[in-house]
Amino acid sequence: MSDKYNWTEDKVRQLKQLYDSEIGWLEISKVMKCTPDQARMKYRNTWGETGAFLGKEAVEVEQPRIALFDVETLPLVGYAWGMYEQNIGMEEVISGTGLLSWAGKFLNGAEMYSDILTSKEAPQKNDKRITKSCWEFLSNCDIVVGHNLVGFDSKVVNTMFLKHDLPPLKYVQVDTLQVARNNFRFDSNKMGFINRALGIREKMSNEGFPLWKNCHNGDKQALKTMLEYNQNDVLALEDLYYKLRPYIRNINFALYNETDLSICPVCGSADLDDDGHYYTPAGKWKAVRCNDCNAPSRRKTNLLDKDKRKSLLINS
Asked: What is the dotted CATH code of the domain comprising 66-78+92-246?
């Protein structure tokens, strides 16, 4: 992704002046109209007239297009013989689920992209139009972040793409639910609970199922509220992504640009420090710590010589 903040020479000087005034990065980012990470990275990667060079090679790192993404669906409607342990067959289904709305934004971007069924489309579950707009948004993404993305959102949109004859997409998936499950033990892994526990932006409250029911019936106010709810989920997701980012392991920013400079695989920063060593059954590697996002990584060169590697035993 190109540098959308247009860092002109005057802007860089302003950034340096703010830094020298010793106010925090959060306040700096408000003045510069960017994120704290964006301001820190630009400061550390700039030299020359600004005097801000900190000993790192200056480089403009190309950023992958990272999107925060969330969908809402309409409920299945059918006949049932009771309210407990029901096994509804095909004959009892009146209408299946469908895509109700989607929302997404690019990381650090100000613009929200979204779409929702109209009051005429909702009762018919006619989701062809918003499926196409969803496909168009995701087709511009290198990496897509979502909470339960792998288990729900991605499967929902793939089903809609297949239904409406749209080809599959090739973005990398980052599922914050999986990151939370693999690295922590929160009392609940729902995004609303985790965000509250971490003291970051929470999900927007709503009336529960009646909201989805009213959307199904095409109520205009309900549809408006649902879209706001969907969009707020994306904003809450962005906050959660930044909190969990040091624990993400399936992305590498270096793959998206041509620089030979070592950069953090998680955030793309060139501000790295050596952090001891990392050991595996196959060898010894130099460990690295990112000063921007705190993510650990390691270099690819095995520090053990050929004879030492030959002498290693493997547990049987």
From this structure: 3.30.420.10
